[in-house]
Amino acid sequence: MTEARPSAPAGDSDLGLHDPLADSFPAGTEGKILFWIAVAFSLYQIAIAAHIVTLSSQIQRALHLGFLMLLCFPLLAALHGRGVPAKVLAWVLAASGVVVAGYQWAEYVPLMMRSGMLNDIDVAIGVIALATTFAAAYVVMGPALPIVAGLFLVYALFGQYFPGPMVTRGYDFAQVIEQMSFGTEGIYGTPLYVSATYIFLFILFGSFLEKAGMIKLFTDVSLGFVGHRMGGAAKVSVVSSGLMGTISGSGVANVVTTGQFTIPLMKSFGYRAAFAGGVEATASMGGQIMPPVMGAVAFIMAETLGVAYVEVVRAAIIPAILYFASAFWMVHLEAGRRNLHGMNKEDLPSIRNALKEGWYLILPLAVLVYLLFSGYTPLFAGTVGLGLTIMLILGASAALGLPQGVLRIIFWIGLGLVAASFLQFGNSALWGGIGALLVWNLIYAGGRKTIWQVIDSLAEGAKTALPVGVACALVGVIIGTMTLTGAANTFGLYIVSVGQNSLILSLILTMITCIVLGMGIPTIPNYIITSTIAAPALLQLGVPLIVSHMFVFYFGILADLTPPVALACFAAAPIARESGFRISMEALKVAAAGFVIPYMAVYTPALMLQDGGPLAESIGYAAAVAYIVAKCVIAIGLWGIAVIGWLGHRLAIWERLLAALAALTLIAALPMTDEAGLALTALFAGLWWLRRRRA
């Protein structure tokens, strides 16, 4: 049941810490038990999403966390090959998590009545809830997030002893436990609510599409589209990872799926191992800003800001396209500098044939996007998308048992009508059709094999959701501390005081905060922490609401490419057989042009399709969008040229410095900077043309 993984290079012996869930469920009785727990977890989440089971929001969150605890500890102990004592401890911790969930369910009404006056049992259960959540985060993600959350918890408990403006009035132990372990301000806060609803459902949706062959479809289309171009192997990585980002919100997951193919392919065509790993890590992390899923942060952002999901997507779409365009440009320049040609076109798959074979896989994704942009809730859209995917998998298997010709055509037409009936009759018609297809597939052996594929997808989806769910729970400790103590105001006031003298310094300070916090912390908790601390301060400095949140989100993603931790790069290390640190240095180079995009959006919100800003007021909204996109393309183009040092020929150091200076002056929309930047761009282009003509 497990696959052999490439071994890590020397010096990277701790890679398993960064990707502990890469292997499948272990063999043996324990593995089977864990497998069926994961299946039950997914079925429970589907029942909640489809309103087959209706529970209060608090109980729903508690059961979600209980399932996470039940699956997390024993699975990680089994995957790490721990001994009997460690496995016994893992099951004890898992049982403790279940007890906490059961207590929250059984005592739901009494707990509300005892609000503010917890008894000793309540406090004990709250301590167990905190301890198991911290322990789960440690075994799944390593020490970084538990340490940060632990520091905030210490501040909540002992803030009255802190110096200067950090001092608090002091809080009773029971009050802190109630804040963190009960109600909706701590571990059961908004992040866990979003995990228990939207995030899990979209992860499951991606898991089903991957099992159905979406990775192969994306890879074949990417190969046929750009594989024959200069440096085509690396361009395939950028395009395929961008496509994968539409269904998978995990950068690390993208690395270990598409990277298994693209990194060896890049190496075979002459790319250095570190650069190949850096390209894959950069492109895969970009999947988190690629709609519609966006690493699940889109749902948390919409919930936090109280705006429609489509507004978040609208703000993300142009930066996402520019991010992948900048990575594509960097790859093109590196290929030109090293004279790396593309693959033979006759050896590549045909785009037409790939789409002909797998076009139906695009239908659930297309319906999902349509529903999201039509105003339906993400929960409804995700449920329908997941249901359609399951229906297509089961329907394709059932159709194989029919003779080719009219009968098979009639079957597909009927299945299409059943699938479309959800618009009239809701999800019940969709799940009824799935039930009928399950019975049909049980009749013959080929169908039973497909049912096992569906069951396997349910289990893999639950396993994939573990890090996100646990992170969403633990980050609630940080939010709970912020709410209890008002600590966010202290840091926010400092950023505002800096910004009164220089907005660019405030942005740099915020960027550094996002990157430092993001070292070892996944994107979702990093976004939640930094948006709680820094985004309100940027809002006070005149940065539009969504732009301020997108700014911290963007640099939270780039934190996973920044050494010394660089989670995405260390995930690529065993595949590339290269040091994770070297890969991260190359990833920074590939992503360098992308660093300018958030800054340009702050100065000109039209880049994120937001109103406001002096440019839109002076020339109009549509003209401002066109102008800032064109300026951003020029800026990232120049920045790439400066970093790689090639544009048709190797550039002298003075040419690279001139390109970098032109790019920097184009970033800020200050008086005369655009004029100076465009003038420097024209000067660079003229000098480059003269030198090329003489050569």
UniProtKB/TrEMBL annotation:
It is a multi-pass membrane protein. NCBIfam families: TRAP_fused (TIGR02123). This is TRAP transporter permease. Keywords: Cell inner membrane, Cell membrane, Membrane, Transmembrane, Transmembrane helix, Transport. PANTHER family: BLL3936 PROTEIN. The chain crosses the membrane at residues 33-55, 62-82, 88-106, 127-158, 190-209, 316-333, 354-373, 379-399, 429-447, 468-496, 502-520, 527-547, 553-575, 587-607, 619-646, 653-670, 676-691. It is found in: Cell inner membrane. Part of the tripartite ATP-independent periplasmic (TRAP) transport system. Its main location: membrane. The keyword Cell inner membrane applies. The lineage of its organism: Bacteria, Pseudomonadati, Pseudomonadota, Alphaproteobacteria, Rhodobacterales. Residues 134-396, 415-610 form the TRAP C4-dicarboxylate transport system permease DctM subunit domain.
